[in-house]
Specification:
6 helices, mainly alpha, 154 residues
């Protein structure tokens, strides 16, 4: 069971850790400069997308998509909930301080960047032909061609 849930927890922790670092930099480095805080927030979302693209690229080589896709989706969901409900307390605010529009905007941005990151990573992997399915089809074709042709006698 540890092998199943440990990667989910580690990925959720890494994604939430990126959020914590971005919030602390925005809070202590640029206290009243909202433009710079928005840039840092956008950089945080981009960093999360890059991490997920890299992870999708690496995991897609070793395991089929249904095996790691659910784990990654659960980790992203847990990290998003932590980011939305716990993250604002780190930066000295609360989740609904800026209103419902900002709250739901953060949800859509998080979902968009995470989905985009996973798609970019997996589509690059598939385009290069390095994904699990392409490699297994390649091995199957090589195995079929390596057998000598069977002669049929009549």
């Amino acid at each position: 069971m540890k092998e199943r849930w440990l990667p989910v927890g580690v990925l959720a922790g890494v994604l939430f850790g990126i959020n914590i670092v971005a919030r602390l930099v925005a809070r202590f480095g640029f206290g009243d400069n909202t433009e710079m805080q928005d840039r840092i927030s956008l950089g945080m979302f981009a960093a999360i997308g890059v991490v997920l693209a890299t992870l999708a690229f690496l995991r897609g080589q070793r395991r089929p998509l249904p095996d790691w896709g659910g784990e990654m989706a659960l980790a992203v969901l847990v990290a998003m909930v932590l980011t939305i409900f716990v993250g604002p307390f780190i930066s000295g605010s609360h989740p609904f301080a800026s209103g419902a529009g900002a709250f739901f905007s953060q949800i859509w941005l998080y979902a968009g960047f995470t989905l985009g990151g996973v798609l970019v990573g997996y589509l690059l992997l598939t385009a290069f032909g390095w994904d699990y399915r392409s490699q297994s089809l390649k091995r199957y074709a090589e195995a079929k061609q390596s057998k000598p042709r069977r002669v049929v006698r009549r």
